Amino acid sequence: QAKAAGRNTMRFFDPSMQASIVARANLEHALHEGLRQNQFQICYQPQMDGSGRIVGAEALLRWWHPERGQVPPGEFIALAEETGLILPLGLWVLETTCAQLVEWSKQPRFAHLTIAVNVSIRQFRQPDFADQVLAILEKSGANPEKLKLELTESLLASDVEDINVKMSQLKAKGVRFALDDFGTGYSSLYYLKQLPLDQLKIDQSFVRDILIDPNDAAIAKMIIVLAQSMGLDVIAEGVESQAQKTFLQGLGCTNYQGYLFSEPVAKVQFEALFQG
Ligand code: C2E
Ligand code: MG
Ligand code: MG
Ligand code: MG
């Protein structure tokens, strides 16, 4: 045992681990640079209603690094959260999407669109988070009713009273809230009933095999019924086939997002989806 422990302490000098520490430091540095040099972009993924009409878009962050190419959010969001870089990055996402809302509000064919923005817990925990969002809304002139903030269940580990105060402050101006990746985290129904949410998002992990796995179908159905009973809107994410959409529709689902309609695309391509 002692020998095993001794070996464990040597792990620090494991070259592969050292390499990963260096890689992490490099990534962190690159993230700082990326923010300074405008290497980030927002892609928009359409959200459809049952008739196939595009009712909104989820804003998804993209990082175009000059040498690394496109770095997926899965590879940098966690580090951005740990380092605190998610704070300036998150503000940039909000500013960019609010400016987009203003632009769309002036064009009749886009004026109905909502934009859903992912908010990390670290951002939301900022004492002045609600004030920051309201300031961006006001400065941009965007309609708060067209902005939806996506929170995740990990938020429920925080003080529910604090969450409520912030959400209520924003909801008073018309901002809406969705609970993202619903069912994958610590979903406490006790907390759920206390939050002024507008929408539940069925996580894509339940949608993927919904046609072949009866447990996934049961969970999706449970979420839809729960949403209906609580007067909430519901959207399924990761819908890739017409058969999945039809199945979800049969369970009572009302909104859909996924590759079946479109991947997340740049604003110009998103707007082109309305041509057909
Ligand atoms: P999310 O908010 O749950 O976003 C949905 C993810 O599913 C996106 O991945 C999207 O591209 C992907 N997706 C959409 N339709 C399909 C489909 O039909 N099939 C499959 N397999 N995947 C689909 P993406 O863009 O890589 O983003 C990953 C995560 O990164 C997001 O998950 C979100 O948690 C986070 N993220 C993205 N942008 C932001 C941001 O601006 N701020 C914060 N805090 N987090 C962000
Ligand atoms: Mg999301
Ligand atoms: Mg999600
Ligand atoms: Mg996710």
From TrEMBL:
Q: Where is the EAL domain?
A: 24-276
Native species of this protein? Methylomonas rapida
Section of the entire sequence shown? 663 to 938 of 938
Name the source's superkingdom: Bacteria
- Under which name does UniProt file this protein? PAS domain S-box protein
